[in-house]
Design a protein that fits this description.
Oligomer: single chain
Number of domains: 1
Mean pLDDT: 93
CATH superfamily: Vaccinia Virus protein VP39
Distance between the termini: 14 Å
Order of helices and strands: EEHEHEHEHEHEHEHEHEH
Low-confidence stretches: none
Strand order of the largest sheet: 5-4-3-6-7-9-8-10
Number of helices: 9
Structural class: alpha/beta
Amino acid sequence: MPDPDRARAWTLLVDGAPQSHVDLDDPAHLDFAYQRRLGHIADLLAPPGKPIQAVHLGGGAFTMARYIAATRPRSTQQVVERDAALVQLVRRELPLDPTARVRVRAVDAREGLAKIPDGWADLVIADVFSAARTPAHLTSTEFLDDVRRVVKPGGFYAANLADGPPLRHLRGQIATAAGVFPELALAVDPAVLRGKRFGNAVLLGSDRELPVAELTRRIAGDPHPGRVEHGKALADFAGGATAVTDVSAVASPAPPPGVFR
């Protein structure tokens, strides 16, 4: 769907939900709030312009891969997107810059992740939705253990999560990640955090100290400002939630009717 305000900007809808926004003339432009937060995380991972190795679980219209290719030239990236028909559509209608070092695999996210060498990635982004829900097998400790295997020491894992009141899924994902990554932060709209509405939150994990102060400053200055929780406040928010395993995992909750209107 074209964006009437930008000549070559498009919004990708999947199962009726807006999944990606792409500006072919300015791939560094991020329109969605959660994608802006992912962009801030990518920006803070390494010095500006330094090439990185990134894995994208869930491709959509390759928005974040385009962003990294534009802001960090010579980066090497792998996109894992199960929907082969979607990959073909995006390649045809929204072609990648031919100089971008982006490899796309049309397989399930865990299958694609399993093929990536140990310690290969500076950044792993998980943004996988089917019928607007994150599949159960991408919410477990076993899944995150494989993510941790792929992430280099000092690298980042960032996940786009969607939930609404009573935020049981979000709390469970924080508890699960806390068992794998020693450092966590959550970037989220305050109304979502208070359980006032359904929305997105970006969970960030690493084995090193996170740039919380700078991330907080950048997200507070976004067109749709958010807040960043970490440390004791984040642990208190997760409360008594327990880690999710492959046996106990369920898909994230379906969005309420009309949420994307």
